[in-house]
Amino acid sequence: MDKVLLSHGGGGTMMENLIEEIFSKAFDNEYIKGMEDAALLFGNITLTTDSFTVKPIFFPGGDIGKLAVCGTVNDASMRGAKPLYLTSAFIIEEGYPIEDLKRIVKSMAETAEEAGVKIVAGDTKVVEKGGVDGVFINTSGIGVVYENVDVSIKNAKPGDVVLISGTIGDHGMAIMSAREELQFDPPILSDVSPLNKMIEKLMTLEKAVKVLRDPTRGGVAEVLYEISKMSGVGIKIYEDKLPVKESVKSACDLMGFDFLHLANEGKLIAVVDRKYAEEALEIMKSDKYGKDAAIIGEVNDSKLVTINTVYGTSRIIDRPIGELLPRIC
Amino acid sequence: MDKVLLSHGGGGTMMENLIEEIFSKAFDNEYIKGMEDAALLFGNITLTTDSFTVKPIFFPGGDIGKLAVCGTVNDASMRGAKPLYLTSAFIIEEGYPIEDLKRIVKSMAETAEEAGVKIVAGDTKVVEKGGVDGVFINTSGIGVVYENVDVSIKNAKPGDVVLISGTIGDHGMAIMSAREELQFDPPILSDVSPLNKMIEKLMTLEKAVKVLRDPTRGGVAEVLYEISKMSGVGIKIYEDKLPVKESVKSACDLMGFDFLHLANEGKLIAVVDRKYAEEALEIMKSDKYGKDAAIIGEVNDSKLVTINTVYGTSRIIDRPIGELLPRIC
Known about the structure:
Mean pLDDT of chain A: 95
Strand content of chain A: 15-25%
Shape of chain A: globular
CATH superfamily of the largest domain in chain A: PurM-like C-terminal domain
Structural class of chain A: alpha+beta
Distance between the termini of chain A: 25 Å
Oligomer: homodimer
Low-confidence stretches of chain A: none
Radius of gyration of chain A: 19 Å
Family (chains A, B): Belongs to the HypE family.
Pfam families (chains A, B): AIRS (PF00586), AIRS_C (PF02769)
InterPro entries (chains A, B): HypE (IPR011854), PurM-like_C_dom (IPR010918), PurM-like_C_sf (IPR036676), PurM-like_N (IPR016188), PurM-like_N_sf (IPR036921)
Largest interface: A-B, 77 and 77 residues
Domain PurM-like N-terminal (chains A, B): 36-145
Strand order of the largest sheet of chain A: 9-11-8-12-10-13-14
Domain PurM-like C-terminal (chains A, B): 157-305
Number of helices of chain A: 8
């Protein structure tokens, strides 16, 4: 392996290997290990970063600007923190239309307004035609951890319950349909949305919420594997409990994709103490982005990530290896 | 004007217009106005972001990795803060050699070690061949403002003294010579370096240090204009006091460049209370990156940015308008 491959960016095992081999070893410190979505600094401040290269820049249900704000708002939130401040760094291709740039920036501003975060610092680079494809955006963000919470990818325990805040695979299939010019009726829209308000309400359950994770690249399958690995547990989910839009399911059947591998940009997976599972579900359902929330499985001590199918059989879920769809986010 | 031009990224008036028209208006808040290098949060925490697209990726005296760490370390420092934590987000072109990626990451790790900062969070995206030119890196950073200091682009007062920490234009000319395959003897090396240790020592002068700014894109001229504008003052510098390497000066003469417009990546401009100017100079000179430091001018109430030439005449310094050299950083 002497060259970087697209699959190194796919959010699966190849990306994990690249990060561990090249970045984590070199930047060796207590913060960068542990596969958390955000670094925890000064005891209660979270810091995250994410670059966005999505193609197309405007897609059904959103655009790169909305995605860039939601992505970083959600990353901070998944550590049990209230996101407050974002940075925004643009790399723009020479010749990019000013009108489109304005649309992207307006979309960022509106999304930041909705999420209640401020964009406090920025950077603008312009590169020659062909040096970059359109516009790439990096957002980094700062949040403050809620009091009396302890949310970490390491906290799942056998007996805990697994919830998802809504339908699976919408973003991935929206991007795919836009890129392949597929028509669905109704059209499949990205779920891109800020989840911090939902998480603020979930945090009233305090330590009953053990793990929060947004299933972006690599999808639900990858998140389940990361929880399993970092918490040292197994997870079983139930196919008949999984919320998936009929259109997404049909498109997956047609194209041979597993919706568990598709990216989501407005969903969260929560691992919750069993006693509080129904309460967590009600909180999710009461939020505008959580009406299709469901309890989808449970944590066990098997170390395996399995699914009970609608046919009554059980199988191990495939962990994503590489790139399902480049430039999904 | 309906398309983004290279000159919109050049660090001069066109970039200022683009930022004010498109970004500052949309992200309207008290933090993003004011042209500071870093946002000040929670009273004493600084947050900055910078994307790096330098070409070539490896250049005389440094590489994109060293540049990415120094750039963000220096941005935090210029607000009178001690940089502590950095994020690192890579956008990598499919097919990029793993060996080169390792060199870049090693360079980042070594520079972070020297500067005493930790890289605590990261992101990796891979885009298809042609989607990006090699490797782009974003670093964002957090610092903590030193006690009893008040460093801001708005603080220059008539009577204050202007210092620079070393020779002017080295980075810009190093990139240009690499890109144009020009040979100089001795070769012109980039000055890319972390200035936080020098600034830590300068901060012992407390409020006597009014303004700190690193003259990157747009060079010394742009920084002088920004100080003039934001502090509402004039600045006069003396040509015979300016530290410039003979090789850089000759190359500028040859190519018709003004070294005041060339980018620097390891230099700072300081505006200091006159009573402490000599002390500040001694502190700079005692630092490994400040041995060519000099007092180069003074603040006045003229609102003009002028230079007293070696011929005894005085002229207004041209403010950079657009792109001298794309992808300088």
